[in-house]
Amino acid sequence: xxxxxxxxxxxxxxxxxxxxxxxxxxxxxxxxxxxxxxxxxxxxxxxxxxxxxxxxxxxxxxxxxxxxxxxxxxxxxxxxxxxxxxxxxxxxxxxxxxxxxxxxxxxxxxxxxxxxxxxxxxxxxxxxxxxxxxxxxxxxxxxxxxxxxxxxxxxxxxxxxxxxxxxxxxxxxxxxxxxxxxxxxxxxxxxxxxxxx
Length: 197
What we know:
The chain is of the alpha/beta class. Helices cover 38% and strands 20% of the residues.
């Protein structure tokens, strides 16, 4: 008579038990993946809704009727302080083509262009007091490139990012180019067609 000695690598007597467990585990894994997929989709949708990038037209903010409208609708930024930063002489830094020029002791303004933007984080050392960054957009290729705001992550007091475009554009176009948006930034734009306004 032949006896059934279990093989160490493969046990025929428990094959059915492992087969059922495997099926049960597959079902649970599928259910877990489905739940993760649904949760991730709803989380991504909520993030898009709450993290909408708003790019305001600077002219509507700086004119008196724009100030009243913004003061009534939003307390997200200090319109008076923004007006001072944009319209009054401030200590400033200029960063164009990897060269930094500083005017004043404690710069609150940083002026740069889109082609120099990726070098800002490593090139600017006096980041502590910068409240506004003005970025010039000069060419169509710059206007169509990605604007990565992660370069400003080490600017602790930065509140305003102001894009001045030499080309016609819209707030929606600028917003669609922005990546790594941080909710502490208020973003503005102005079209400057060489008229100085």
